[in-house]
Amino acid sequence: MEELKSKRANSPPQSPLSFIEKAATVFGDCPSIIYNNTTYTWSQTYRRCLQLASSLSSSGMISRGDVVSVMAPNIPAMYEVHFAVPFAGAILNSINTRLDARTVSVLLQHCQSKLVLVDYLSRSLVLEAISLFPPDTKCPSLVLITDDANDDGDGGCGAVDSGFCCTYESLVKNGDPGFKWIRPESEWDPIVLNYTSGTTSSPKGVVHCHRGIYSMVIDTLIDWSVPKQPVYLWTLPMFHANGWSLTWGIAAVGGVNICLRKFDTAVMYTLISKYRVTHMCGAPVVLNMLSNSPDSKPLKTPVHILTAGAPPPAAVLFRTESLGFIVSHGYGLTEVAGLMVSCAWKPQWNLLPATDRARLKARQGVKVGASTEVDVVDPVTGASVKRDGSSLGEIVLRGQSIMLGYLKDPVGTRKCLSEDGWFYTGDVGVMHPDGYLEIKDRSKDVIISGGENLSSVEVESVLYSNPAIDEAAVVARPDDYWGETPCAFVSLKPDFTSTSNKPTEKEIIEYCRAKLPHYMVPKTVVFQEELPKTSTGKIKKFVLREIAKSMGSSRLSRL
């Protein structure tokens, strides 16, 4: 059979962009997007994506391989750009709307974005970010995404703020609905660029290809048992790893995307009831908010909710499932485009007490899809650790959805994508005798707060810039609401230790709030004469973690 080889007919590039073509054909008259009083069908959404891609491609603003950034919440435009931007041959870069102007400026410069699509509520932030560009740096063009139902899309100069070339709707209106979208030359061509939220001084731009995203979509739909035409409520930010790749996944099954600009539990329960929502995703904090909300009530029909980011507390799982939510738990990273591990549920576990079920469901689980391999290895020898639920090692992954690498960071890429064929996650875990993975700790001191990864090093760098602080270390403190919050331990310089000029906890927090995104600001500041250190002078963070843990929930301390 040596003469039987791959040919053009049996090896076209795999791409998630193809999903919307089928959706427009099969589910053309069915709703695709619902947002406030606006409803689009799949044929309309497909046409709008083609028109936007046509305008982007013909305007001269971008070319194949350019980066197009978007900063917007979960609105129709944010969904459409996941198809329209790569339709134009460009690479989509979704930016976290919670970042500050300084960070946004760094990211835009690092990826050399040619065009930024900006939601009207983020326009001031992006303009400030652009103003921070060095004088000799070329700035990207800006397009304003309005939220006005009466926007006629004329895109005149008077229709938008100064600094913006046109409106999003004008690009859609003036585009060609018959545009032949630019297909990837290879399935290894980049399709998206996502920045990890746990960056330190240098941004980590994760680059994914068409093939990897396609694989993640298929694996997620199969593992989560998503049927045709689900009703999906967008509580998970689309900027967060492209909504775990479900932006393309919902198109693959012709589902309905219920868009939600702002997280509000009362609105969410209304939408769940009104549209008979079947699926949604979110960090454990979302489960906590849903189950603790005064608007919570037993659901009329079950809602499948996929959670990840941190192990959901047993009490939160119990409360959430008692309302009628069916919770699935998984594990993934920006570098793998979604969830590569899920806590696959065994039928016999339904016979166990609620506390035991919650304990089992809090584990990260087993591999997702046929293309994935998961292991826990000794970081020195590379050998698998014992499957005893107690032997610690680094979690490693292998699969088609693993990133191509970090943009402009060959050292970082080689460090995690090793020659032995594994992706080293930096997370520490154990493997149980039944083959289920469980995270026990995190390397690099990453704190997960409300599903967002934040780097303690970045927070510490801001603390060290305070003239009163001598030493600083940031660790995770348990929080019943956010899962974890940053807890800062600081020692002061001699000139600032007296009662008259000693800064207060509130002043330190306000200092950080002026320099960091809100979710990265320490919620607790502990003053110490000297931070504990090893014999080599390194701060003993494991000691500080125990202190923070013994302090209990940071939320309870604020009540």
Automatic annotation (TrEMBL):
A Pfam family it matches: AMP-binding
The keyword Phosphoprotein is assigned to this record: no
Entry keyword set: Ligase
Keyword Plastid among record annotations: no
SUPFAM superfamilies associated with the record: Acetyl-CoA synthetase-like
Domain of life of the native organism: Eukaryota
InterPro entries documented for this protein: AMP-bd_C (IPR025110), AMP-bd_C_sf (IPR045851), AMP-binding_CS (IPR020845), AMP-dep_synth/lig_dom (IPR000873), ANL_N_sf (IPR042099)
AMP-dependent synthetase/ligase domain mapped to chain residues: 21-407
Stretch forming the signal peptide: none
Record Gene3D superfamilies: 3.30.300.30, N-terminal domain of ligase-like (3.40.50.12780)
Domain annotation AMP-binding enzyme C-terminal: ranges: 458-538
Sequence similarity: Belongs to the ATP-dependent AMP-binding enzyme family.
Protein name, as recorded: 4-coumarate--CoA ligase
Provenance organism: Xanthoceras sorbifolium
